[in-house]
Amino acid sequence: MDRRTVLALVLVAAVILLTPRLFQPPPRLPVIPADSGMIAESAAVQPVPVAPAAPQSTVSAPPSSQSEIPTRVPAETVAVSDSTATFRFTNRGAALVDVELGQFRSLGATSGPVRLGSRGAPLVRFQGIIGRDTIAFDSATFRFAGRERVGRAERLGFEGVVGSDTLRVDYLVQPDSFLVRIDAQVRGRLMSSGGYMLLQFAPTLDSYEADSIDNQRNLAFVYEVGARGSKGTGFGKLDPGERLVVPGPLTWVALKSKYFIAGVLARDSVSPIAELTITGLARSSSVATHAQGSVVLQPRLGAFSLDLYAGPQQSNRLRALGRGFENSNPYGGFLQPVVQPFAGVVLRVLLWMRYTFDLGYGWVLVIFGVAVRLILWPLNHKAMRTSLKMQRIQPELNALQQKYKSDPQKLQSEMMKVYKDHDMSPFSMFSGCLPLLIPMPILFALFFVFQSTIEFRGVSFMWLADISQKDPYYILPLVMGVSMFVLSWIGMRNAPPNPQTKMMGYVFPVMMTFLLANLAAGLNLYYAVQNVAALPQQWLIASERARAATAKKT
Questions:
Q1: Looking at the whole model, is its pTM more than 0.85?
Q2: C-alpha dihedral (64, 66, 72, 76), degrees to nearest 10
Q3: What span, in angstroms and rounded, lies between the C-alpha atoms of 78 and 417?
Q4: Measuring CA to CA, how many Å separate 412 from each of 392, 395, 404, 532, 549?
Q5: DSSP label of 304
Q6: Radius of gyration of the chain (CA)
Q7: What CATH class has 34-327?
Q8: What is d(CA 113, CA 107) in angstroms, rounded to the nearest whole number?
Q9: Domain with CATH 2.70.98.90 in the chain
Q10: 234-290 pLDDT, tens per residue?
């Protein structure tokens, strides 16, 4: 054995023997006194699962003094209740577990109130980010730092430590508003290194609807990017593992189902949301039910503030929050700038009628359908009269087309003379479609209103248990189709024969019946009522047409 080999063996032995002595393992962290405002290193605490959906959970009372906090703080929940909701918080990660909405009952297989959250995951939790390192505040056990009344509101404080980083979170629960104000401070490496905070949403919202599949199709993350308007990304638009990054500044970000929403709003323009990341998660069926949304926040001077709304998508409440949050249910596609404001106007009219006349929404839709026809009566009547004039001059126009078919210029001048003699224009030929088109914008607006307006959720009317769901007996779609056919049939009486008009009179009612059969019963109710309300006007026009035909013969 040569000397180099012996030297190598000696060095290896020296490394093995001397390393443990030269590099002692770090000593066990001492227990930090409770009155220091900090708790022990969270890594020493074994995770304790939180069961947010347990129907009969017991709210643990907070320690009476800081000195009573043990080294290994157990996971516990604290609840704050008012007349509208119960917010449940946990000291595991200072997270908001869920929100129980006592005013809204489950319409699905389970009974009891709606709980806005996800079984097995908090509704909102926090993490820290420094470069590629994650500071797992969400798995740390926080010290309960106090509970106090601030006017009618109630404040809860949590403080926790992970390594050299400290996070203090204060929740101020506003009474009767589904609103929580979040104020947080960070200290340590995260602040000095210019790190970021992550606010993680629950991966889904549990369904409490009669049609759970429809509710799952409405699961989405919605957000508003500065002044560019609101956008939405449905869970179904993301493949498993696909990642969407939405750069900021963002005004607000929210997780929504069909009727309920949990969103965080930047307190002001000085501290907007920096970024949103949405990642598709694994699917257990053809409908995507889970996605992960992460909101990136950049603390300013070690602090950040947010407003959190967790409750129903009631337009008056969302509008009261400002910051364009009433647009948190974007619809209409590329027509959204036109469709959404118009649908908002229709909804406000319905709500005004509901509270002004103190009627149920079923009767509100009946009155609204009649009112639409009465308001549009003059315009509709003028359109029908113009259509009647057009039918009278049609034979003259047909004769001119035959006479001057080889001279287009002469044909055009003669036709213009006929229009002028009858006080009409070439565009009058399109006015016959107006009686069908006038109610359509309102029908389209109501279609979108019924997609997510919680005011109609679970509302009964006559034999209907829920006007936001389809008619189980298909009575209203049939009434709507029959009334539309009768309306067309009266309109064709005493009119010159027109094969195309006759075909549309038969086909259009059948098409609309099948189109609306599985849509909200309230939508069918409105359309059926306004069809019936149009019958007298259609009858008057048909009678006038008959008198004109009789006078012409004599």
A1: no
A2: 40
A3: 83
A4: 19, 16, 9, 41, 28
A5: E
A6: 33
A7: mainly beta
A8: 9
A9: 34-327
A10: 999 999 999 999 998 899 999 999 999 999 999 876 667 999 999 999 998 889 999
